[in-house]
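User: Teach me something about this protein's shape.
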Amino acid sequence: MRFPRSCGCLLHPTALPGPSGSGDFGVDAYRFVDWLEAAGQRLWQILPLGEIGRGNSPYMSPSAFAGNPLLIDLVELRREGWLDCDAIEPVADGSERYIDFARMTTYRKSRLAAAAARFAARATPAVRQDYEQFCAEQEYWLVDYALFRALADLFPGRDWCDWDAELAARKAGALAAATRRLADEIEAWKFYQWCFFRQWNRLRGYANERGIRLFGDAPIFVAYHSADVWARRELFDLDDNGRMRVVAGVPPDYFSETGQLWGNPLYRWERHKADNYAWWSARIRHAFALCDLLRIDHFLGFVNYWEVPAEAESAVEGRWLPGPDGDLFEQLSAELGKLPIVAENLGTITPAVEDLRTRFGYPGMAVLQFAWSGDDANPHLPHNQVPDQVVYSGTHDNDTTAGWWSTLDDAVRHQVRDYFGIDGTRPHMGLVRAAYASPAHTAIAPLQDYLGLGSEHRFNVPGVASDNWRWRFGWDDIPDSLADEIAALAAAHDRI
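Assistant: First, the predicted structure itself:
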């Protein structure tokens, strides 16, 4: 699939400014869209929008379908009359650069619960009709999800397999009793999802009206403690007690000498195939209801995936096994048509992975920080890039470009300076300019690289379990002249 020549910015909504402890879909999100438009950007790339899971990661969500309630704009709930005027006392002044997840989560959850209770008591007939229509349209995932989240609160700190045995096994009588007992809590979780999707759709519409498309992200795996695994355990590689036999990860790579032990459950691909990949079709259709184009994370895993014993202490103990290959994407194409999907084809990429990607016309990725191995055939070097690609200065898993530059040895720095004809005083803009000049149809840079921020502003360190996903920017980080500079660069390289 050929995308229009364009450029964009990678920033997860949690990294937006705002007074409620983390970024959300409030006024600062709209201001950021305005800045993107002024900077000549045509894409806003985000990370998965699902609830955060272990380690506060958006890649470990308790649902492949639900949105993150912590992104709901509380000010809008107050405007609707579902929160008191004095209910929103800033958890911070909006200038802090790192999220305190414990404090922010406690603050936001208490306000969301108050809003759900008032909505249940006071919603107008028209608003309630909109809510009920949403619940009916999303019933295929929302019913299981809302019950799962209510039960998870009933059994805090326990995976679903450690709940009461009949609930873990989804016995009909136990589910019916729990649904009656937890009716208010279930409605509250549905209300949060209605708020999330309503606010996100409004923000997406605002961006689209300004020529900016939303570039989403779909993790290949889901979290074990999730509504999906609890409700459809036959689709996952579990033992007779519902526990994981094996888990997902990757072998040693650029990011980690011992590989990465992700801990997600693996799929029983033969069960998915027998069901015509119905769960996957629903998931991808749902993802495109939220975004305009979609990156599928760890595309390699559809050809071969790294299986690690559940009791292993590192990913080194894993082995490669075959994935569904083209069967899944044949089914997706048959049901959903040709989709604007980007394949994350980084890491140990084989000819079979590239054959699968090109067979379905999915653009791949190139990352300029990966280009300097000393090999002229390195596919990340600009002279080896092709139109059918999305080129990045770095991704959310990389160090910032300024941070990366500070750690390079003199030989590599000389190679980069010589290649681009730069003096190294603004290396971040050197890589941004190289991405824009690339033949790749799409060029993306994280906001940190547009701003020239150092390693302390990095978003994620793969293989490290704590202190990730916390960074936020402030409006005073953005020079007044930057939007004009980036827009001129975009225009010069035909990306507007």
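Now, about its shape. Residues 183-209 form the longest helix (27 residues). The CA atoms of residues 303 and 352 lie 7 Å apart. If you'd like, I can walk through any region in more detail.
User: That's plenty for now, thanks!
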